[in-house]
Design a protein that fits this description.
- The chain contains 22 helices and 24 strands.
- The protein is an alpha+beta fold and about 750 residues long.
- The strands form 7 sheets. Strands 4, 5, 6, 7, 10 and 11 form a 6-stranded antiparallel sheet that branches. The chain has a 5-stranded mixed sheet with strand order 2-1-3-18-19, covered by helices on one side. A 5-stranded antiparallel sheet has the order 13-12-22-21-20, with helices on both faces.
- A hairpin with a 5-residue loop joins strand 15 and strand 16.
């Protein structure tokens, strides 16, 4: 007996020592072998890149995961109660491990032989999601338990719950409850109802198969289960429970709603950020504030769309993209499915013609609606025979479309719809602040979805006569004046291949001796060529570099005077800004500042400022590249281009502080208008991506776009004329000779 009792004592002592050793080993393992969980206090959740306008409107989001981090004190109490009722009802009582839950899981394992339940608490799920894999093994479960205990000793319960609710995957690329509220309901988390909170709380169990988009029936059962648990545990009363159970399943997919349409801006910013920070921009929660003003961007969007569609309609209807056959009741569902495969491009919606009368057509839309297009929305559609010729005006719909034709339609200002087509030509518009180079708006094409090529920054095109002001600026620097007279007469130049070049004016007329001001106003080609010849190519090319043009962009021949350089619209805007601000070179920029996930500014733009007086010592002053007098004289001439020259149509805007120049290249391939006031520079371009004629001049194709934009952009702003600098005098000259006029000459006029 004594031997037996001694054996028992030794066993007990050994067991106690073994238990102490296990505890010590576990503590050692927790302290030295498990990951350091202090980082959870400052954990960086993967948050997508967000790009905003200068005034805080969302432009775009980039990143695979949608996440909207929400601090604990901003998480609605009903959602917390729904999660606890379903996932971990004793959360605020246990120390990270729920012994009862583990016991149930163990019992089920013994009875079924399968690991159906893990008995995991919310803390254990946090440990798993941040540090472990999802493979169900006993080793992982032990590490999960030990990590949970360690986390509970380091973090407050509220912080752990905040991490869980912001980290958990809830289906459809939504990570965290903030993103899930937007994805399934299109609302902020605080705007949801009890039944919607219950829906979100039920998703962690199987987010891909229990979400209301993938399996509405299973999702509703899961939601009702959560509501029942909330009711059982006293979180909601009978009336609330009954109302929530009867609530319909109103979830649907909501894409991230941007507030301003500026995809070309977003892509440009994304490219610049990737160069600065690499791939981390898609996960580190950067918020980028651009220089774009939402009001001006919206105006630019409408201006480009309206005028490109108007240009396209002026050149006739090219016909349907395809034909689906003869419509019938049996094939309407199939037609709807086919229409849904065709993307909507800049508001131009695909539709199929299902019925015609003598003065209207009825079309089937991708949403199943039948819409009538009246004759007023069809009558424009003259058939495009070729680029130079349109067929006769149609008299009834069957001369335009056939039954089964897939066409494009768009809404009108009168509440109706009209026939439309996706333009084959492209266009772009960019606006700058000439005082610091900030890009205020940018539209790089008709539709980003259709073509991601940004014509503002990447399309090298010939600017035509819109380039002439830089050549005339070089002449003024050389000693010519706006009163200098040069003969507008035929020129024949032998070229390197022995062919003869005979440049002409657009009118195919010659005007004889012409003052430089008149040559700019009327865009006289032969005067410009002779002027360049008098100055010399080396001097002129060197001078043009002051505006930011590179030597490789400038052809070495006299055709340079006619705008045969290859430049982008953004370069043209930068160059015209020099005239607008009085001779200083600013640099275009689009990123104003970048903030990290803690809302700290990690980058702030420091642009060059066009400052000439009272500049602070901290101001980065833009360098002077032409004299203030030179800029004033060119602006004076370009003001007259609008008052009485090739852009006199813009006089209808009713402002006297505008200046600008039209541009049309050979065979009307490119159409331009570049114009400005002291407050804004805007450049409009229209053309085909593959060089072909627009069959319109800059004053027809590009100027109306610029006018629509600038009139709205400057609406309500007081007129501000460029200041006349010292060193400029106004004298009476003879309009024929350009010489100083006698005091009694009745034909004399004033010239600077």
């Amino acid at each position: 007996m004594n031997h037996f009792l001694g054996l028992i004592r030794k066993t007990i002592i050994f067991t106690l020592l073994l238990s102490v050793a296990i505890v010590i080993g576990a503590l050692y393992y927790m302290e030295y072998e498990l990951p350091d969980i202090d980082a959870l206090n400052t954990v960086q959740l993967q948050v997508p890149l967000q790009i905003y306008t200068q005034d805080g409107k969302l432009i775009a989001t980039f990143g695979e995961k949608r996440r909207v981090p929400v601090p604990y004190d901003k998480i609605p109490k009903p959602l917390i109660e729904a999660v606890l009722a379903t996932e971990d009802q004793r959360y605020f009582q246990h120390n990270g491990v729920d012994i009862q839950g583990l016991g149930r899981a163990a019992l089920q394992l013994v009875m079924t032989g399968k690991k159906l339940q893990g008995g995991s608490t919310i803390t254990m799920q946090v440990a798993r999601s941040f540090y472990l894999t999802r493979h169900k093994t006993f080793g992982r479960k032990l590490r999960e338990i030990l990590l949970a205990i360690k986390i509970e000793h380091k973090l407050k319960k509220e912080k752990i719950l905040e991490l869980y609710l912001n980290k958990v995957f809830l289906g459809n690329r939504a990570y965290g409850v903030g993103a899930a509220a937007e994805v399934y309901y299109g609302k902020h988390l605080s705007e949801l109802t009890i039944d919607q909170y219950a829906m979100l709380a039920g998703l962690p169990k199987a987010p891909s198969t229990l979400n209301p988009l993938a399996n509405p029936e299973a999702a509703k059962k899961r939601r009702d289960h959560v509501l029942a648990r909330m009711h059982e545990q006293g979180y909601i009363d009978d009336a609330t429970y009954k109302k929530a159970i009867e609530a319909p399943l109103d979830a649907s997919y909501h894409d991230l709603q941007t507030e301003v349409k500026a995809p070309y801006v977003a892509e440009l910013v994304r490219e610049q950020l990737e160069q600065m920070y690499g791939d981390s921009i898609y996960t580190d929660g950067f918020r980028v504030y651009t220089t774009i003003l939402s009001r001006l961007q919206n105006i630019a969007n409408v201006s480009v769309r309206d005028n490109l569609l108007a240009y396209d309609q002026r050149h006739g209807y090219r016909g349907a993209s395809q034909n689906m056959g003869i419509p019938s009741i049996d094939n309407m569902d199939d037609w709807e499915k086919e229409l849904r495969k065709i993307p909507v491009l800049n508001g131009l919606e695909p539709a199929a013609v299902v019925e015609m009368t003598t003065k209207s057509i009825t079309v089937l839309r991708s949403n199943g609606d039948l819409t009538i297009i009246p004759w007023s929305g069809l009558s424009w559609a003259r058939k495009q025979v070729n680029a130079d010729y349109l067929g006769p005006r149609p008299k009834q719909p069957n001369q335009i479309v056939k039954l089964g034709d897939v066409v494009r339609i768009m809404p009108t200002t009168h509440g109706n719809y009209q026939l439309a087509q996706v333009p084959k030509a492209e266009a772009g518009l960019v606006a700058l602040n000439p005082q610091n180079g900030a890009i205020l708006s940018m539209v790089g094409g008709f539709d980003f979805q259709n073509s991601k090529f940004n014509r503002i920054t990447s399309a090298n095109r010939q600017p035509g006569s819109s380039f002439k002001p830089f050549v005339y600026s070089a002449a003024l620097e050389k000693g010519f004046t706006l009163a200098t007279v040069i003969n507008d007469a035929p020129i024949v130049i032998e070229q390197a291949d022995n062919s003869l070049w005979r440049p002409q004016n657009e009118s195919h007329k010659f005007y004889g001796p012409t003052r430089l001001r008149t040559a700019i106003i009327e865009s006289r080609n032969l005067v410009s060529i002779r002027l360049l010849a008098l100055m010399g190519m080396p001097y002129t090319v060197d001078y043009l570099k002051r505006f930011g043009f590179m030597g490789s962009q400038l052809p070495p021949g006299l055709s340079l005077a006619l705008g045969t350089a290859l430049v982008t619209p953004l370069q043209m805007a930068q160059a015209y800004a020099i005239f607008a601000n009085g001779g200083l070179k600013v640099v275009p920029y689009i990123i104003d500042n970048i903030r990290n996930s803690q809302d700290q500014i990690i980058y702030q733009a420091r642009p060059l400022i066009a400052c000439t007086k009272n500049c602070s010592k901290d101001t980065a002053v833009a360098p002077r590249v032409i004299s203030a007098q030179n800029a004033f004289l060119i602006t004076s001439a370009l003001h007259d281009v609008i008052e009485r020259g090739t852009a006199k149509r813009a006089k209808n805007i009713g402002r006297t502080d505008l200046a600008g120049k039209t541009g049309t290249t050979q065979n009307q391939v490119d159409a331009w208008f570049a114009g400005y006031s002291p407050d804004i520079v805007a450049v409009a371009w229209v053309g085909f991506d593959y060089n072909q004629s627009l069959h319109e001049y800059g004053a027809q194709a590009a100027l109306p776009m610029w006018m629509q934009f600038i009139e709205s952009a400057l609406k309500g702003k007081a007129e501000r004329m460029i200041e006349q600098p010292p060193g400029i005098v106004s004298i009476r000259i003879d309009p024929i000779t350009g010489k100083r006029a006698s005091a009694n000459d009745p034909a004399a006029l004033f010239e600077y």
